[in-house]
Amino acid sequence: MKIASYNVNGVNGRLEILLRWLQEAAPDVVCLQELKAPQEKFPIKAIEAAGYGAVWIGQKSWNGVAILTKGQEPHLTRKGLPGEPDDVHSRYIEAVVDGVVIGGLYLPNGNPYPGPKFDYKLRWFKRLHDYASELLELNCPVVLAGDFNVMPTELDVYKPERWTNDALFRIEVREAYKELVDQGWTDAVRALHPDERIYTFWDYFRNAYPRDAGLRIDHFLLSSDAAERLSTAEVDKHVRGWEHTSDHAPVWIKLEEKATSKRRKS
Fold it and tell me: Which residues does the annotation say bind Mg(2+) (predicted)?
């Protein structure tokens, strides 16, 4: 099973890019973030014409998440994280696909630091931490995929000294990510590429992509059942170079039908 995550940065404005990549990469499952479209404006007809079923949570102008599945309809199991009933941001969606629980998420950016947006980010992380512990108790593979808006280590950011007080690299946020992983999750990209400088995001400004001045903020966290099946974890970096593309590149993993011979750890 090939599972991808892609912060599309506007599903309607970049629909042509999304469809082009879907045809090229042919993932079985895609978690999309930053739809930036209300529920009724999601381009479901175009997605279906490309051979995918979909579930989604829209939001006007901001946020928005979706799960696409090739040749079938995802079985929706959750919209939104528990723990803060008044939170109306569209940031978490969950579905079961061929026996795998897939949670697609868009964690808050949190800038500027300090401030209420940063506080909200830490609360959201705590809610994710609490709910993720419940997911680990399920007797099946679980994948948490999406834009986490955190660079876990200095290896994941170009010139880390410039990001010390940014909400994506603040020590509190990195510690929250580590605490989440330490529950028993495997960071798929780092499990297979422990020492490589790999990025998933390049800003539109300052010629960031040609200079490869990027960040790794899009992640896959796998439960032990899923991690045992992990065979590949890659970034479709070239997609970031397409005209009118998102500032993120698609990230994807492959899970084999049976556990791989070598157990990988985060």
Answer: 7, 34, 147, 149, 247-248
The pLDDT tens digits for 82-91 are 999 999 999 9
CATH number for 2-255 (one of 2.120.10.30, 3.60.10.10, 3.30.420.40, 1.20.1250.20): it is 3.60.10.10
| Assigned token pair, 68 | 């696409």
Contacts of residue 62, defined as CB under 8 A and 6 or more positions apart, other chains included, come to 36, 89
Is 166 a known ligand-binding residue?
A: no
Q: Which H helix or E strand runs over 201?
A: strand 201-202
Encoding tokens for residue 62?
């901001």
The neighbour count for residue 143, using CB atoms within 10 Å, is: 28
Q: Is 236 annotated as a binding residue?
A: no
The whole-number average pLDDT for the span 113-131 is 98
Q: Measured between alpha carbons, how far is 9 from 2 in angstroms, rounded to an integer?
A: 22
Tell me the three state secondary structure of residue 88.
coil
Which residues contact residue 166 at a Cβ distance below 8 angstroms, ignoring those fewer than 6 apart?
Answer: 111, 113
Position 258 pLDDT exceeds 90: no
For residues 211-236, average pLDDT? 98
Nearest to 169 by CA among 148, 187, 188: 148
Domain limits, the chain: 2-255
**What sign has the CA pseudo-torsion 59, 65, 70, 71?**
negative
**Is the pLDDT reported for residue 242 higher than 70?**
yes
- Token digits for 22? 């879907």
Helices (H) and strands (E) in the chain, counts: 7, 14
Q: Is the dihedral of CA 253, 256, 258, 259 positive or negative?
A: negative
What is the set of active-site residues?
A: 106, 147, 248
